[in-house]
Amino acid sequence: MKRRAFLQQTTALATLASASSQASNQTIKNTGPIILSTWKNEKANIAAWESLQKTGRALDAVEAGARIPEADPNDTSVGYGGFPDRDGHVTLDACIMDEKGNAGSVTFLQHIMHPISVARAVMEKTPHVMLSGEGALQFALDQGFKKENLLTETAKKAWIEWKKTSKYEPKINIERHDTIGLLAIGNKGEISGACTTSGLAFKMHGRVGDSPVIGAAVFCDDEVGGACATGLGEFVLKTLGSFLIVELMRNGKTPQQACEEAIMRIVKRYNYKEFQIGYLALNKKGEYGAYAIQKGFNYTVTVDGKTTVIESGYYMK
Ligand code: GLY
After folding, report:
1. Is 91 an active-site residue?
2. Are strands 306-314 and 298-303 parallel, antiparallel or unpaired?
3. Is the Cβ–Cβ distance between 145 and 112 less than 8 Å?
4. 233 lines ligand 1 (CB under 6 A)
5. pLDDT single digits (tens) 196-243
6. Which atom of ligand 1 is the closest one to the Cα of 229?
């Protein structure tokens, strides 16, 4: 199976085949603990839900969920197995935010399978929010994380193939998903969020996207709710999408309305036809919503231990 393929066709087929999928551009309400993740990430949601059963804490849940694709060699956009940059290096970005407004992140981290856990360690064990590159790696090693080769044979072959043309063309959707973003409400009603990625395949060496940037890829405010993003990170960065969505919810918009408004900010200013952004939002009442520029974005919800994949609404009809 090809690593990255446009989902505009495959998602449509998957949707028809999946009884658990349903089209949605409405705010959906939930009460009690909940896990949300970008894309079709059932295994991540199940791990997050299991974590919630053990500790009850949303922060543990989003970390546990993010670790699933990070360790999956078949997931070519996150962690181990992620496609490398154009120089052949797998470089990782991740961030995490808790209900108290604490945040941690790592950017341009190499050789560590679980950047989300390093981001959490940055949050909990340093006076900083963000560590990058060599410094992030040194910190991870000091914390006992193992140095590993994250470039799988499959990813290496794809890179060698890519080098024949060296054409940089970020895909609109990616076969299984790209970045995973997670939001959770825990047993005390508190909200947390996380995001982890290997970034765009064959990006320039040193490129960092939205995924480690608090306010861009993830933002949570326990008075309001949380949001997370996926897609071409440059445009999430330029519009600080997740922070924007939380502020829109603070000012009275539903999660669905807030996601739609954040997508419109991009559509109004940029040539949106060539790229995808998907947003997911959750408020403190347990209402959630999602919206994307293009067809093909979906998200995974777990409530009462039941996991469902939902097709997001989208702008470009
Ligand atoms: N959203 C992931 C990235 O652009 O790196």
Report:
1. no
2. antiparallel
3. yes
4. yes
5. 999 999 999 999 999 999 999 999 999 999 999 999 999 999 999 999
6. 1
